[in-house]
Write a structure and sequence with these properties.
By secondary structure, this protein is mainly beta. The protein contains one helix and 56 strands.
């Protein structure tokens, strides 16, 4: 290798070594932070042959008195003796010659000297009129010299061309000196969520402390600056009285969110970080960095989806269904809001609430249907929140919307307005089919098993027997149902629910009676039941005496034909029991009726809850409606005159009839009873005989 090649080789190695050293000592940045701010370069003002003043930063922002201009200048001492800073100052004036007072921030007033081969940065500020911009200002560097007129010697000046900008470009970064530490800062992402009256801007700011010590940023504030210059203060999700603390060399992501009026343009927005100096009322805030923002749309008011960002968590909010149900001569509207965790880690349930509106301004008084609290959402996990409101039956829901609000402490702010989908139609459950319920922690199946019409003196009682099966793994008290009975002509009748409060074990059933008291002339052909889970102000109702406000997740049950009376005394179903009558022997001894009754009672053990278990034997003349003898029974009651238990039973009734009419030929009937109404299950014409067992089908 010749001498020239050797020199080139060592020169290249030296340059490479310098680059490697610079790579090691420069603070690390996020991988895509490779674009720095494009700032106009100012020529330094030399104060000696080897010492100069350099303009580091200049900015101007709105203030209460007009505008606040600030300038950071660095004095570099390249000589061998210290420079006395009391010999130098800056003077600020407009290009037209108007002078403004330049003040030094309080913390810089203690800086008196610039040691040899070192530098010192001073920050000056000045209140200027609102009409002034940086291009209208001139910053002069002066030296106090008592040998010249006016005692000031101008060393040089800094002017600001129209192209001047210290804004950090999109995807760029900047190293900012804060509290004696260099902090690298950049924007990770910024989104805008458009609402009806306001837009919400969310910004994630990355900050890395390049020093070997912690830095507290309690004197740092953030603003969003609109393209018209207006400033909107931003709160961070970590706002505390102590501020944000940056640990050494660790990348910290700060979440910022602010609500902007709809009229403020989303183009040309800037994130401004300011630092406060001084104490309380005398403190001032000066900008230290500005970032240009490129906002990605997080939601649209034309859809029913909304992307919500809160701190480290992102969610998708939508209206997944609308239900409309008749209730007490009005209409209940049920809006289902679904919140999904869109992130990759478990997130808390956000504090978002909803309110229903017709159009944008007609609010429907809205209440949530309370459910068991859920505190977190796994990735892709969701929670459903139901809201209810009541309107007149004639109200059109074509303009129904759900407005979303975020609550922080006592402050509530609007996020957006969601359009709602079409009103759901009731799902139809065919005769003999099951309906599955899986909301509010309820996992049930329901099925109408039979229908009976029970007669009263003036009205009839329509009774549908419904099985409710507990599909959960633990015992529960099943929820109460509510709704109405609807005839084929569209007439609606309020129903009552007769049920127990028993705990129903897993895979076991409860028998519920759905009843409606109706005029005798009502046509019940093709009638149906519309039933859903009942709710009140405390949530889904389980207690039978709770004040119901409406129902949710309703289904329309097609109904079987009412049960007709039979002629067999076997397999009579009363509630959860089957009864087989083995013997009915009735004979007349002068004026005394003597009746022997034998029967077997079997309980259906698939039921853990049921209510009806009353029946009666009636000896009656159907041609004259003469009742000679009525014997009421109750199954497995704790006490009573006539009680039959599970297993074999025998009852003997002897009754004197000397003062009553007796028919020679009559019917023996068995009736089921509910609340004073009764229906005849079986009847057979008999006559008095001590030898005939009328329960025997062979006996005619």
């Amino acid at each position: 290798m010749n001498m020239l090649e050797r020199k080139r080789f060592f020169k290249s190695q030296f340059i490479l070594a310098i680059l490697l050293i610079m790579a090691l000592i420069l603070p690390s940045l996020p991988s895509n932070a490779n674009a720095a701010a494009a700032v106009t370069s100012f020529k330094p003002v030399y104060i000696t042959s080897n010492s100069y003043v350099k303009l580091e930063n200049a900015d101007i922002i709105p203030s209460s008195k007009g505008r606040m201009a600030s300038f950071a200048v660095t004095f570099y001492n390249g000589g061998s003796a210290p420079i006395n800073l009391r010999d130098y100052w800056v003077r600020l004036k407009s290009t037209s010659g108007t002078k403004y007072v330049a003040n030094l921030i309080e913390s810089d007033k203690t800086k008196k000297m610039v040691p040899a081969k070192s530098n010192v940065t001073l920050t000056f500020y000045s209140e200027v009129p609102a009409s002034i911009s940086l291009t209208n200002l001139v910053l002069n560097v002066i030296k106090f010299d008592f040998s010249v007129a006016g005692y000031e010697k101008q060393l040089g000046k800094f002017t600001f061309p129209a192209s001047y900008s210290n804004d950090v470009k999109v995807n760029g970064y900047k190293g900012v000196k804060i509290n004696n530490a260099v902090i690298n800062m950049r924007i990770n992402k910024s989104t805008i969520s458009k609402g009806t009256d306001n837009n919400v801007v969310n910004v994630e700011l990355a900050m890395r402390n390049t020093e070997n010590f912690e830095v507290n940023l309690s004197n740092l504030s953030f603003y969003l600056q609109a393209n018209n210059g207006a400033m909107y203060q931003i709160k961070t999700t970590t706002d505390t009285t102590q501020g944000v603390t940056l640990r050494s060399k660790i990348l910290e992501n700060i979440k910022l969110t602010v609500s902007l009026p709809k009229a403020v343009s989303s183009t040309g927005l800037k994130l401004v970080a300011t630092q406060s100096y001084g104490e309380a009322a005398t403190s001032i805030s000066l900008p230290i960095v500005k970032f240009l923002l490129s906002l990605n749309a997080a939601s649209s008011t034309t859809a029913n989806n909304y992307a919500y960002v809160n701190g480290d968590y992102t969610y998708n909010v939508k209206v997944s269904s609308i239900e409309r149900y008749s209730w007490l001569n009005e209409v209940n509207i049920i809006s289902k809001m679904e919140i999904t965790n869109s992130g990759t880690k478990t997130a808390p349930v956000p504090k978002i609430s909803g309110a229903m509106y017709l159009g944008n301004n007609a609010e429907i008084p809205t209440k949530p249907i309370l459910s068991d609290s859920q505190v977190s959402l796994t990735p892709s996990g969701s929670i459903s929140i139901y809201y209810t409101g009541t309107v007149p039956a004639s109200t059109s829901l074509t303009e129904l919307k759900l407005k979303l609000f975020e609550k922080e402490g006592e402050t509530q702010r609007e996020l957006t307005t969601l359009n709602t989908p079409a009103v759901l139609t009731n799902k139809t459950v065919a005769v003999g089919s099951e309906n599955t319920i899986n909301i509010f922690g309820q996992k049930l199946t329901t099925k109408v098993t039979e229908v009976k019409v029970l007669e009263g003196s003036t009205n009839n009682l329509y009774a549908a027997y419904m099985d409710i099966t507990n599909n959960q793994e633990t015992a529960i008290a099943t929820s109460r149902l509510a709704g109405y009975l609807e005839t084929a002509s569209g007439n609606k009748y309020t129903v009552s629910i007769i049920k127990t409060n028993n705990l129903i074990n897993a895979s076991k059933k409860e028998q519920v009676l759905v009843t409606a008291e109706l005029p005798k002339e009502v046509d019940l052909a093709n009638a149906s039941l519309v039933l859903g889970l009942a709710y009140n102000d405390e949530g889904i109702v389980k207690a039978t005496d709770a004040a119901i406000k409406g129902y949710i997740n309703a289904a329309r049950y097609a109904l079987p034909l009412p049960l007709q009376e039979g002629s067999s005394f076997s397999n009579l179903k009363i509630g959860a029991y089957n009864i087989n009558i083995d013997n009915i022997i009735a004979f007349l001894n002068d004026t005394t009726i003597d009746v022997d009754l034998n029967g077997t009672v079997t309980r259906d053990t698939s039921y853990d809850g049921f209510t009806n278990k009353k029946f009666s034997f009636v000896f009656e003349d159907l041609s004259t409606n003469l009742v000679m003898l009525q014997i009421p029974f109750e199954i497995e009651a704790a006490s009573g005159q006539y009680v039959w238990k599970a297993g074999s039973n025998y009852t003997n009734i002897v009754q004197n009839m000397s003062n009553k009419l007796i028919s020679p030929t009559f019917n023996v009937s068995i009736y089921e009873e509910i609340n004073g109404f009764k229906t005849r299950l079986v009847t057979k014409q008999i006559k008095w005989s001590p030898y005939l067992n009328w329960a025997d089908p062979a006996v005619k």
